[in-house]
Prior knowledge:
It holds the Pfam family PrmA. It is found in: Cytoplasm. It is an enzyme of class 2 (transferase). One of its GO terms (molecular function) is methyltransferase activity. This protein has helices at about 15-25, 65-75, 95-100, 145-155, 170-180, 190-205, 235-240, 240-245, 260-270, and strands at about 5-10, 30-35, 55-60, 85-90, 105-110, 115, 130, 160-165, 185-190, 210-215, 225-230, 245-260, 275, 280, 285-290. The chain is α/β, with parallel strands linked by helices. It folds into 2 domains: about 5-95, 2-Layer Sandwich (Alpha-Beta Plaits); about 100-290, Vaccinia Virus protein VP39 (Rossmann fold, 3-Layer(aba) Sandwich), CATH 3.40.50. The strands form 3 sheets. Strands 8, 9, 10, 11, 12, 13, 14 and 15 form an 8-stranded mixed β-sheet that branches. A 4-stranded antiparallel β-sheet has the order 2-3-1-4, with helices on one face. A 3-stranded mixed β-sheet has the order 5-6-7. Strand 8 (about 160-165), helix 5 (about 170-180) and strand 9 (about 185-190) form a beta-alpha-beta unit. Helix 4 (about 145-155) runs parallel beside helix 5. The longest helix is centred in the last third of the chain and has 13 residues, at about 190-205. It is elongated and about 65 Å long. The relative contact order is 0.10. Residues about 35-50 have low confidence and may be disordered.
Amino acid sequence: MPWIQLRISADEETxxxxxDWLMACGSQAVTFIDxxxxxxxxxxxxDEVVYWHNTVVMGLYDASHDMDKxxxxxxxxxxxxxxxQYKLEQLEDKDxxxxxxDNFHPMKFxxxxxxxxxxxxxxxxxxxxxxxxxxxxxGTGTHPTTALCLTWLDGLNLKGKxxxxxxxxxxxxxxxxxKLGAEKVIGxxxxxxxxxxxLENAKRNGVEERLALYLPAEQPKIKxxxxxxxxLAGPLRELxxxxxxxxxxxxxxxxxxxxxxxxxxxxxxxxxxxxxDEIAVQEEWVRLSGTRK
Length: 293
């Protein structure tokens, strides 16, 4: 069935209101996207959702819906009356889930590691293959920050090591570490859905018995051989004392989710505790790594 998509420009104060308006006008679904690619944090359970300062609210309508009437109604109730910024788009009639699945291909990182969608055959049965079913949480390997961390893990000897994955998301880094030989991985995330996604992906890969998952309030006090934190520069800065406590003597640390213009400050901050390596860059993103002094 063909669809029409209505996009309205909003901000953190008006996004929820616009969503209600679109639903009231017969929208089949409403989606929020970031208009300027600014990161947003997943809220803690029970916390209020905070939207981006520049948000696009998208409503999906059946192609037969009277969009002239919808636009007229929205303009009438819009605070600026006729000054509502919007765009109508005709969407091609296709199986969107099938389209998405067809476009997600196996990806290789480093020399040994492949990340493979669970619905595709592995390209190299002799390689280290992580079967991933992305859905509930961020982390498919397609983003440069994840790719940088996967390549770093592939270059390590993880046999018998204990790894902490701080901000585990879908569990992609945890699973990669376990498949690459780590004895145990501790995954930590503020989002219960991320922990659920990590567990389901671990079961799919047969490594769930070596993966322990925790919310921050429950996280154990442990010294790990390797710590990886692929989050964002803000939390990496604010949570530095927490993250560094997981790194054992001579342990290895990798940090990502950092833009190039944020890297130097964090390298200096973590340089208090670690001998830092040269910064690795992919597109505009970086990975910082080092060894605990």
